[in-house]
Amino acid sequence: xxxxxxxxxxxxxxxxxxxxxxxxxxxxxxxxxxxxxxxxxxxxxxxxxxxxxxxxxxxxxxxxxxxxxxxxxxxxxxxxxxxxxxxxxxxxxxxxxxxxxxxxxxxxxxxxxxxxxxxxxxxxxxxxxxxxxxxxxxxxxxxxxxxxxxxxxxxxxxxxxxxxxxxxxxxxxxxxxxxxxxxxxxxxxxxxxxxxxxxxxxxxxxxxxxxxxxxxxxxxxxxxxxxxxxxxxxxxxxxxxxxxxxxxxxxxxxxxxxxxxxxxxxxxxxxxxxxxxxxxxxxxxxxxxxxxxxxxxxxxxxxxxxxxxxxxxxxxxxxxxxxxxxxxxxxxxxxxxxxxxxxxxxxxxxxxxxxxxxxxxxxxxxxxxxxxxxxxxxxxxxxxxxxxxxxxxxxxxxxxxxxxxxxxxxxxxxxxxxxxxxxxxxxxxxxxxxxxxxxxxxxxxxxxxxxxxxxxxxxxxxxxxxxxxxxxxxxxxxxxxxxxxxxxxxxxxxxxxxxxxxxxxxxxxxxxxxxxxxxxxxxxxxxxxxxxxxxxxxxxxxxxxxxxxxxxxxxxxxxxxxxxxxxxxxxxxxxxxxxxxxxxxxx
Amino acid sequence: xxxxxxxxxxxxxxxxxxxxxxxxxxxxxxxxxxxxxxxxxxxxxxxxxxxxxxxxxxxxxxxxxxxxxxxxxxxxxxxxxxxxxxxxxxxxxxxxxxxxxxxxxxxxxxxxxxxxxxxxxxxxxxxxxxxxxxxxxxxxxxxxxxxxxxxxxxxxxxxxxxxxxxxxx
Lengths: 587, 169
Prior knowledge:
The structure holds two protein chains of two kinds.
Chain A: H1 2-12, E1 17-20, H2 28-39, E2 45-48, H3 52-64, E3 69-74, H4 75-80, H5 82-91, E4 97-102, H6 116-123, E5 127-128, H7 133-150, E6 154-156, H8 160-163, E7 165-167, H9 188-191, H10 195-213, E8 218-222, E9 228-232, H11 234-245, E10 253-258, E11 260-262, H12 266-272, E12 277-281, H13 287-291, E13 298-299, H14 314-325, H15 349-360, H16 390-404, E14 413-417, H17 418-434, E15 440-445, H18 470-476, E16 482-485, H19 490-507, E17 511-516, E18 529-533, H20 543-548, E19 553-554, E20 561-562, H21 572-576, E21 582-586
Parallel strand pairs in A: 1-2, 1-3, 3-4, 4-6, 5-6, 9-10, 9-12, 12-13, 14-15, 15-17, 16-17
Antiparallel strand pairs in A: 5-11, 8-10, 18-21, 19-20
Chain B: E1 3-10, H1 15-28, E2 33-36, E3 47-54, E4 67-72, H2 75-81, E5 85-94, E6 102-103, H3 105-111, H4 118-129, H5 135-144, H6 150-167
Parallel strand pairs in B: 1-4, 4-5, 5-6
Antiparallel strand pairs in B: 1-3, 2-3
Helix pairs in contact in B: 1-5, 3-4, 4-6, 5-6
């Protein structure tokens, strides 16, 4: 897998400190680093951080001490780490620092389709844009050397189909441990620069970029001095090469492959001056396109030759080539029909919690956050979510806004996950206590970061790390009502939510219910209960299907159809059934 | 060899596992491999596909109308994804319909008391039809199976493989 190839590349180049916060499509990078670290006994530091900002700062500290470091995250994670990134571009680094930000064109599993290369450009750091797992692995060497040569952080920007592509790669070397003496050079003019010195650092940074521009980081793939050229980078380059194979375009196109999207090599711009027309194929924003100085003869996203949103498919490449060459014949196909939407898994404790929230607050205003629980949308138990941590601030904001407008305030109940709570909810919760915002916060504590593959959280760390008690943190934020409930204790859950609401109303303070039950995907508990369907009692009302939205239940002609392969006997449908047709028995 | 294969199913059914077994097995046979698979949100029960290309390719993406084979875990997913198939492409489908290239893997899996092995039965069936040697795929299954399920998984794969052999095409 691409993410494993990246991990291998990091360790092969002697990176000895890797941090990350999980997020699709980047999660498996650190997981693979941890696996190789153990397998080859490398003794490197490889740990999940509480969020991307902390992850970035830890890796930067290691780099300042002289060691090679890497930090990986998904593209929206880079937004969280943008503050230290902007500043680190000025301060520079000592040991090579590779910032891996994985983009998600489509998007498949993200809030935005943003292009991390723009943030590299914004921060004024170089960015490499691999087109395949193998290339991602190979680019790491060059990226780290560049980082050390110019003492500048360097970004590697893979996209989903590089991260989650599998490719056969023959590995020729074993990984070796490579210990290094670390120390901080006392150099406050770089590491601790005050604003007036920052001007000098900015100037240094600009000089670095000017020199880097002179280093070539592109390849001529086809060069026959044709009149038209295609410039491509990243995954679209791989698509382009496969599309070209199926066409006969012998002498009509020259092809340039860009490895470093920013800063674009000066000599590439010079070469491109001789073409009549240039097509740029890149993902997701026009980063290379904007750096090509010949606006009037450049085609791409800016003039609509390439769509401005969504991922590129072979069909888009073909259409763009058609626009460039005019004489290409291609048949437009209707896109794929919408498939089945994702849902909460059978046996998911979040389903039980959402059901209880709907029961307790049928008229509620229900913000949520980023994680599996966005799927509460399907159960109509989620009205809005934005980004990591906003579950708390949206609840606070709704309350304060309605209160300020002197309007009636419905019960506000927000849901956030355990990992998300630690990631970005804590300052928001303190603010909500401080501002007297009355809402119920349900922390869906399933003991893991479930959506991204089950990474640890501060309250459920691996054995060698110290546990941070969630309840203590919440109380430390100033919250007075904190109650832990098992969401599969259905009536107790509804009762606790109502209690929490009464408390928050009375005291004008957020009240917290911790809905605690492990994710069945990552903590396999042997089944102690078994669902039974007493068909003779069923009246075919289908309330079990509609209220639970469980994938194991399907509306049948006169009775629900139970998929016994999927059912985990969680008992929610049995609790919902008004006719006693579904029953859970202890086994 | 140049083969383009779509694996279609629902998240959580084991589409990623099938992709790993197919790609690793083919790579062991000395065939260059590139594939793609969906992770994250898409894994939660929604429709998912993996794309597998065997032979000399740059990208794992399959253009509509280019796939040689479609391996689908249900009739619904086969129907939805047939847009990927070549005019003469073949769908291998887990379904009880008595159609060519269909196999009732779910019932077979229930019978061998290994309901989650249905997709491995389907894979074994498909691999035999593609004319590939079963050995490296069995090795991949061994690597990817938890000890408890190792023998059952291999048995399921071999059941599909032998059914295909018996039936011809």
